Known about the structure:
two-stranded parallel sheet
Amino acid sequence: KGVSAKTNDFTPDGEEVTIDYHRMLQIVKDAGYRNWIGIEYEGSRLSEEEGILATKKLLEKYGNMLS
Length: 67
């Protein structure tokens, strides 16, 4: 089993434009998943590294809120 966090673009405050990551991570947590989450950035506005780091920051934000 595995989970991937795919992002395309971010709002100015760091939220993903099309996916509610707070809701998604709650679903993942409620399903009992407690392992690594892979990151996939497929946008074009940020560099690959910047997109990955922005996604990581978003996951950490909601991961900490749901702990």
